[in-house]
Fold each of these.
Amino acid sequence: MKALSDDELLEELKRRLSINHKTIKDCNDLIKQLVFTNKKLEESEKVISHFISNVTNEIINPFASILGLSNNIVLSKPNDIDKIKSMATLINSEAFNLDFQLNNIFIAAKLEAGEAIVDIYNVNIKDLVNSIIDSFKNEIKKKKLIINTEFLGAFKKNTNPNFKTDPNKVRVIIINLLSNAIKFSNDASEIEIKCSIDDDLFTISVKDHGIDIDKKDQKIIFDRFKRLDNSINDKNRGHGLGLSVSKSLLDILNGKIDVMSDNKLGTTFIATIPDNNSNNEIGDFSNTGNDFLFNDKEKF
Amino acid sequence: MTNEHIIKHYLQPTSIFASDKTSIIQTILGSCVSVCLWDKKLHIGGMNHYMLPFWNGIGLATPKYGNIAIEKLIDKMISYGSLKKDIVAKVFGGGKIIMTSQNKTFQIGSQNVLLAFEMLKNEKIPIVSDNTGGDFGRKIQFHTNTGVVLHKYIENKPIFPTKTH
C-alpha cells in the first residue's frame, strides 16, 4: 500500500466526511418519509373507527326511518292520501340515498379485491347523463337547484354520438360527481354539467356553486374515507368513499380526474375518459382474450 | 380431467384472478408485473397484474399497486385451501417500455420487479422461474393445473401511449 502525504490524507478524510454527510442526509430524508407514512397509518386507523360509527348513522338510521314510515303507511286510512304521498316521498329519498351509499361500498370492495372487470360497450353518453340527472330529480327539487347541461364537441355534429366504454363504471363516476355537487350546493343555486367528446376523449365537468376546497385539501380529497368535515350532520352524509371510488374507476378506464376550486365560486370536478378503441393497452388482443401461439422455447 | 371445463380468463391490468378450477390465465405486460402463484400440491393457481409498486394512500387500496396485489393474491390462494409452504411463484414483466429517462429511479418496470422479489422473499415463497426487465412487452399464459407459464416477447412499441404515469 502506498503511503499518503498529509495533504492526500486530509483530502481523503474530507471525501469520506462528505460521503458521511450525504448518507446522513439520505437517512434524514428516509426518516421524514417514515414519519409521514406513520402519520398516514395513524390517520387511517382513526378513519376506520370513524367509518364504523358512520355506518350507524348512514345505514341503520335510514333503515329505521324507512321502517317507521312504511309502518305508518300500512296503518293509515284511505283518505290520508296526501300524508301517504309525502311519507312515500321520504321513503323514496332515504332508499335512494341508501342504495347509492351501499353501491359505493360494494364497488369499493370489488375494486380492492381486484375483481372489477372492464366491460366495453357502445354507450350513448347523452342518454346516460340525462338518465343520471333524472334519477336525482327528487334531491334536485328538494334543494331547488337548477341543472344546466351542455353537450359540446362531437355532440354538436351528431346529437347522439356513441362512445366505447364501460357504461356501469362511467355511470358510478358521474353519479358520485353529481351527488357531491348536489350535496355541497347552496339551496337554489346552479349546477353546470358540461359533456364533450373530442378526439376519442370524453370529458365531463360538474361545477357547483357551493363551498370551495383549499389547495392543500385538494390533494387529500381522493383518499378513501376522507371527508374534509368529519362531523356527522345532515349536510355532510356519506362515507367519504365517492371520490376515491371515482378515482379508482377512472384508473382502470385509463382516465383521470381533476379538481378546480380557487375562486370562492364553488368547485369544478373534471373527469376525462379515453375511448377504449384508442387505448392500445392490450395491443392486438381483444378484451375477451385471443389465443396465444407459443413454441416450446417459451415455456417457463 | 379430460372432460373438465377449462376456464379461460383474460386478466385485465389492476385485477387479480385465482381459482380452484383448472384455468388458463393470460395477460399482456409492459412495465407492469404479474406474479403467478401455483400450489404444487393442489395444482391450483392465481395471477395478478399490477402497474405501480406502492400504494400511496390516494384512491382505493386496489391491486393496481404491487404491495396490495401480491398480498391479496396470497390471501386468495390461502382462501382456496393452499398452504403457504406449498406455493411457488413465477414473476414476469417489468419491461422498460416507456422511454423516459436513463435514471433508474424513474424506471417503473424495474421497481415493480424489485418489489415482487422482495415481497416474495419476505413471504418465504420461492421464485421458481422469472423473466423480467428488457425493452419489450410480454404476453403470458398461465396454466393453473400444470403450473406452466407460456411466455412470448412482443415487439418494442409504446404499449401505453395514453398513459401519463
Note: The interface with chain A takes residues 8-10, 12-17, 26, 28, 30, 48, 57-64, 68-69, 72, 90, 92, 129-131, 137, 139, 141, 148-152, 154, 158-164 of chain B (CB under 8 Å).
Amino acid sequence: MIRWQLAYPETEIPLFGRPIGPDEYNAFVTMHGTIMVFFVAMPLLVAAMGNFLIPLMIGARDMAFPRLNMMSVWVLAVASLVLLASFFVEAGPAAAGWTGYPPLSARIEYTGVEYGLDLWILALALEFASFLMGGINFLVTPINLRTRGMSLFRLPLIVWMIMGASILFLLSVGPLIAGAVFLLLDRNLGTSFFLAEGGGDPLLWQHLFWFFGHPEVYVILLPAAGAMMEIISTFSRKTIFGYKSIIYAVMIAGVLSFLVWAHHQFISGLDPRLAMPFSITTILISVPFAFIIFSMLATMWGGSIWLTTPMWFAVGGLSVFIFGGVTGIFNGSAPVDIYIHDTYFVVAHFHSTLFSTVFLGGFAALYYWYPKMFGRMMNEFWGKVHFWGTYIFFLLVFVPMHLLGVGGMMRRIADPSKYEFVKELLPMNEFITVAAIGLLLIQAPFVFNFLGSMFVGKKASENPWDATTLEWTTPSPPPHGNWPGAIPAVHRPPYEYAVPGVSEEWLPQSRPEGAAS
Amino acid sequence: MFAWLPENVSTYGGDIDAIFKLIYYVVGVWFVATQVFLVYCLIRFRRRSGNQRSKYLPGNTASQAAWVLIPCALVLVLDLWIDFRGADVWAKVKLSRPTPNLIVRVTGKQFNWIVTYPGPDGKFGTADDKKIDNDLHVPVNQVVRVLLTGEDVIHSFYLPHLRLKQDVVPGREIPAWFEATKTGKYEIPCAELCGFGHSGMKGFLYVHSEADFKAWVRTQWPSAG
C-alpha cells in the first residue's frame, strides 16, 4: 500500500477500497519499519534459530534457562499484541517513523496520535525485555552447556554469530530503554527531556536511539550471516576459509559498531567537526565485512558446489549483501550524505543489506534446517522457482530505487507528485511498485511448499545434506531431549570436508579419531 | 546513473558530485569483481559428478591468508582515500563560514518555512524585519547565510539543486550557507518527517540576477529606497 501511494498518488488502492491519507501513510511507514525490524527479523533470526540450533549444535538437551526462555516467548507475544492493539485505538497507531524522533513523537498535538504512540513505546519496551531474557540464554547456553570435546573454537560459526548478536544487544539496549522511559514521561507527565522549550534537547533521543540502532542492525545481520556461512561451507563441500579470523573480524566489527552511531546524524545539527571522525569509523567498518565476504568467496573457490535451494539462497544473499555493502560507502561519506540523507538512496541501501540477510539468509536457513525441524524435505523445484523469482524481483525493486535517491526523492513523503523535481521520477515509482507486487506474489510457492511439505514432503534422513555439525547426528525431527541416547562427544573442528589423507568426503564432528577409514 | 542527479546550481555542489562519482567508480570495480568471481565459482566449481572432491583450504597459512588479506588491505587504502577526499568537501560545505552578502533566518514550523529578512538595517529584531512564508529570494553569485531555527518539531531544510541539506532543530540556531550559480526557481522541500502535513511542506528559492534582486528589495522596502 505504501508503494501504491507512491506510484499512483491519491488513487484508490485495490482490496483496500479507498486512497490512504497522509496521516495513515505515516502510520503505515512507521509500523512497517517497527514490525519488520523488531517483530519479524529479531524473533525469526535470533530467537527461533538460536533456540532451535544452539542446543543441537553444541550438544545440549535444552537451553540453560528453559523457564526464562518461556517467559521471553510470552513477553514477546504480549508485546506483539500491544503493537497490534495500537492499530485499533482512537487516533490510530504511531506515525513518527520507526525511529520515533521527538519532539514529533513527544507531543500529542504534533502527530495527532494519542495512545497509539504510547502503546508503540510499550510494545518496544516489552520486546526489549523479552530479548534481554533470550539474549542471556543465548550467551549462557553455549558457554556452559557444550558437550565433551566441544571447545569454543570448535563451535559452528552460527553459534558464534548468535552469541555476538546477543552481546551487542545486551550492551546497546540500556540507553534506549532509558530513552523510551524519558519519552513516555515527556508524553504523559509533562517532562521536557526532549523538548527545547522546557530546557531539553531533541538530539538527545537521536544519540540514545542510534547508539542502540547501529549495533541492532548487526544483531539482525550476524545470525543470518552465520546461517549463510554454514550453508556455503556445507554445499561447497569445503571447510570455512579462515574460521578463527572470521570470529575476530566479527569482534572488530562489533566494537566498531558502537563507534559509528553519529553517521545517522551528520546533518542533524550535531557539531559538524564530529562528522569526519564518525565518517572514518563508518567507512572502516567495511574492512572486517570485506574480510568476511572475501572469506566466503574463498570458501567456494575449489569446492564441489552442490546447488540446492538453500545454497542458491545463501549465494544470492551474499551477492545482494555485497551490493548493499558497497552502497553503504556512499552513505558513510559525510559530504555525499549531505545530499542523499533521508532520500530513497538510504531506503534502498538498508533494504539491500537487511533484505539480503533477513529474507534471503532467513530463507536459506529455513530450506536448510527444515528437514531437521519437520522430518521432511521441501520441494526442490518450487524452492528454486521461489529463489529466482525473489532474487530477480528484489533487484527490480531495489536497484532502481537507488536512482530515485540520486534524483533526490525524499523518504517518508506520502505524495511525491507535490514536488516538481520528484514528479519526473513517477514512471520509475510505478515500475518499482509493479515489481514489488511481483515480489509479494512470488512468495506464494514458498508458503505452499513450506506448509505442504510438512505432510507430503519426502521423509528426511538424519543427515540429508551430508553435513558435519552435531545437529545432523540425531533423528529428524529430534526427540525431546534432542538425542535419543547419550549426547555425542566432539572430536574435531566443524566443517571437515575433503580432508587430505582421509577417504571419506566428510567427517562429522562426532566421529572419534581413528574410527574412520 | 549521474543523469538522474538534479542540475547542480551551487558553488560546492560540483565537489559533492565529484566525491559521489569517485565512490561510484571505486565501489563499482569491487562490485563487478566480486560478482564475477562469485559467478565464476558457481560455474567452474559446480558439482558435475558425485565423486568430485573439493580442495582443502582452511586459510590458516600465510600464503593462503594472503588471498584474502591483500584485497582487504586494498579496501582499507581506498576507504582512507575516500575519507580524506571527502573531508575537504565536508569542511568546505559545513565547517567554513564565508563572509555573507545576505543573511536570512528560516524557521521551520508545521508545515511552513518562515523566511525572515533583517531589512535594510541588517539587524534582526528591528521594525524593518520582514517575514515571508515559503519564499526565499536571493541574488545569484553571492554568499547567502541561512540561520535555521525551529519552533515545534525537527524539520530538514533541503535544497536538492544546491546539494544542501541541514536539519532544523527546535532550541538551536544552526547556520548554513550557499552560493547559487544560476538564476531560477527551485524547490525547498522538508526532508525530515514532521507530521501529517510533512508531504507537501515546501517552499521556493528564487535566485535573481543582481538587478532583479535589487528591484525585488525595492518592492519590499520602498521607503529605504
Note: Chain B has two domains: 7-45+56-95, 102-224.
Amino acid sequence: MSEPIIFCENLTKTFSSSAEVLRILDNADFVLEKGKACTILGPSGSGKSTFLAILGSLERFDSGTVKIAGYDLGQAQEKMLHIFRREVIGFVFQFHFLLNDFTALENVAIPAYMAGVPRAESWDRAKKLLDLVGLNNRATHFPSQLSGGERQRVAIARALINQPSVVLADEPTGNLDPASASAVKELLKSLPEIARTTLVLVTHDPELAGIGDSSYLLKGGHFECIR
Amino acid sequence: MHQVKNPNIRPLTFVGLRLLFGRPANEQYNDLYRARHSVFWGAVLGIGISLVPLYIVLFVSNGMIQGITDRYLETKTSHLQMSLPFSFDATQRNALTQDVSRMPGIISTSFEVDGIGLAASQNGSTSAQIRGLDGAVLQDKGFNRFISVDEGQMYPNRQNEVVLGRYLARKLEVKTGDSVTLITLRSNDSTNYLPKLAVFRVAGIISSGYRELDANWFIIQSDAALRLLNSATAYAFMGIKISKPYGSDLDRIASEVSRAGQKYGLTSEQGARVRTWREIEKSLFQSFSSTRSVLVLIMVIAIIVAALNLASALTTFVIEHRAEIAIIRSFGVSRTQAALIFLLGGTATGAIGCIAGSLAGIAISIFINQIISGMQAILGFASRLLSADRQTIQLLNPDYYLEHIPITMDWRFVVLILLSGIALSAIASILPAMKSTSIAPAELIRHE
C-alpha cells in the first residue's frame, strides 16, 4: 500500500441542538491513497457533506485525527488552514458557486491569481483548464450566460487551477438536469487521470458511484467499504 | 504540492473593484444588478462632489485674499509705512526719501497724507476718504497695475483737481469736469475744530477693482492735502514698496528704514514709526483667514459625510454578499486578504472619487470667472423674460468681492486634498473590511 494522502482515525463530529445531540461521525476511520479516487454514498443526513467539509477544513471536528497531505487538521491553526485550502484542496460544490461578476475564464483564474501566481500565467492556466472541460468557447461568458452543466464544469476547472493534491466534490450533479449532468459525469469520471489528483466524491447518483477505485457507504457514523 | 508566491495587492484590488462595481458587459446588467453596483458609483460621485466645493473654496478664497491683499498693498497700504510728523518739512522729506530709496530691496517710495472729510456735489453729499498723494504714484508699477481709469486721468495734475473712486463719483453723481466741494476740519488744539471748504474739479474717476477698498477715495495732491488737513485730523506717512513684500525680509527692511529715519530725528516717541503691511492690515486679513477656515471646515465635514456614505455602502455590500466572500475564502484566501479586498476596493473607490472630484474642482476653479459670467448671463436672460425690470444680476456682490477673481493654484493643496481624501476613504473602509473577516468559508455549506 502506498502512502495515504488522507488519513482519518476515530473521527467524531456532533451537532447539538436544545433537543438532542446528533452524532454524525462516530469514531470513523477513513484512509485514501494518493492519486486514488473514491466515492462516498449514504442516505440523506448521514453526514457525507459534513465529512467532506471536515476534509476541506471548512468544518471543525470534535475529536480524532485528520491528516491530509502532511497537514494535521486537528492541530492546524486558522492561519494555516487557508494555506491548506489554497495549496492542497480543490472544491466542487453541489451548487456551482461561481462569482457572478466575473467571466468563466476569470472565475477559473482568480484562485491562482489570488494565490500569487502572475496574472498572465493564471489566465493561461485557466484557458487550458477551460479547454480541458470543453468550454474554451465560453471563456468570456458570465455565469448567467452559461447553462447549469457549463457552470458546474467551470467550477470543476476552478477547483483544479491551483493543482490541488485532493479534489473534494460534493454531489456535483445534484442540482443538474439529466442532460447537463451527463457532461459533468463524463468529466468527473476522467478527472483523476487527466488532473492527476486524488478525488473524493460524495454522490447519490448510481452512475457516478461506480467511478474511481473504491466506494464507501457512510452509515451510523462509520464508513463501510462496499467496493 | 503546488507552491504559491507571496500574494500581492493587485489581484486583491482587481477582485475588490470588480465585486464592488461589476462589469457592464455582464448580461446580468438588469435593474437589480445596476442598483447593486450603482451604490458604489454613488459613493464615488459623493466623494467627488464633496471635493469640488473644497477646491473652489480654497482656490477662490486664496485667490480672493491674494487679489485683495495685492490691491491693498499696491494701491493703498504700501508694503511699509513710515509715519511722519506734519512738522517734517519738504526738504527733510525729500532727503529721507532719497536715503530710503537707495536702500537694497526698496523699489519705490511715495508721500501720502490721509484724512477724512465730507464731499458734496449739487446732487448730494457723503463722507470721503481723503488721500493726498504725491506724483510718485504715477511711476509706481503696482499702483498702475491695479488702478483702472473709468474717466479722465489717474492722478490730479493741479492742486484744485480731484480723482474720485468710482462709487464715490456715482454717489455724488458727478463726472469729469464737474465740481465737488470738500469740507474738512482743522484744529490746532484738538478741542476746537474749524470747518474748511475747498472746491475741486473732478479730473478723473478710477477703480481698484475692489469696492471696499476704493469706495470713498478722494485723491488730491499731497500739497493740497497738507493745506486742508493737520496732524489732529490726518495722518502723514511715507509709503515704501519693496521687491518681495511677502518675503521674510519685510521686518529686516522695516528696521533699516526705521534706523534711516532716526538720522533725521524721527523716533517712535515722535510718532514716526515704521510698520509693515502685516501689522497695518492685520485685522482685515485675520477676518479673511477666519472666514476661509470656517468654509474649509464645512467642506471637510461634507467630505467626511461622503466617506461615511462609502463606509455604509461597503458594509451593506459585505452583509449582502456573504456567499461571495465565503466562495473567495474557500479558495484559500486568508482573513487578512479578504479584509484587504474590501479595504483596497473601498480605498480605490475613494481614490476614483477623489481624482474625479479634483479634476472637476480644479477645472471649475480655473474657469470660475467665466462660469459666474455665464450664470449671470443666463439668470439675467431668464429674469428679463420673466419681468420687465432690466436689472443686471450679479451673483457676487462687487461691494464685497473682487470684480475679477484671481485664481491662485497651489498644487500642494491638490496633493494634500487628494491624499487626505484617499486616506479618509481607506479609514472608512476599515470597519466593513473587518466585518468581512468574520465570514467563514463554512458558510457555503449553509448556502447549499
Note: Chain B touches chain A at residues 1-8, 10-12, 14-15, 18-19, 22-23, 25-28, 323-324, 327-335, 337, 440-442, 444-445, 447-448 (CB under 8 Å).
